Amino acid sequence: MVYHGRVKDGTVVLDPGVRLPEGAVVRVELDLAGEASATSGDEPLSKMADLAVETGIPDLATNVDHYLYGHPKASDAG
To answer: Which member of 1, 46, 76, 78 lies 3.0 to 4.6 Å from 40 by CB, making a disulfide possible if both were Cys?
Structure first.
């Protein structure tokens, strides 16, 4: 189950209405897709989706070395 909240004065505060049993074991994961954290503005990976563009190359992931370095396409390597 996923619950949401924020850090306030160094303490995780869950959204209103969320009640967990005392002693519950939890895992905290930073949500960079939500609001920007204090450091995410300086983190280049947090901007990767904003920089992505449609290339029109359907096999780019498979043949990235071909397009970048001129290596034979994976489909031609057979």
So the answer is: 46
Name the residue type at position 74: A
Task: Give the DSSP H or E segment for 68.
Answer: helix 64-69
Side-chain-side CA neighbours of 36 within 13 Å: the count stands at 10
**pLDDT tens readout for residues 49-64:** 888 889 999 999 999 9
Locate 15 and state its tokens: 């959204």
Residue 23 backbone zone (phi > 0: left; psi -120 to 50: alpha; other: beta):
left
- Specify the residue for token string 């189950």: 1
| pTM reported for the whole predicted model | 0.38
Chain-centroid distance, C-alpha 52? 13
| Secondary structure of residue 27 in the 3-state scheme | coil
- Is residue 49 within 8 A of residue 36, CB to CB? The reply is no
C-alpha distance from residue 39 to each of 13, 32, 57, 60 (Å): 20, 10, 34, 31
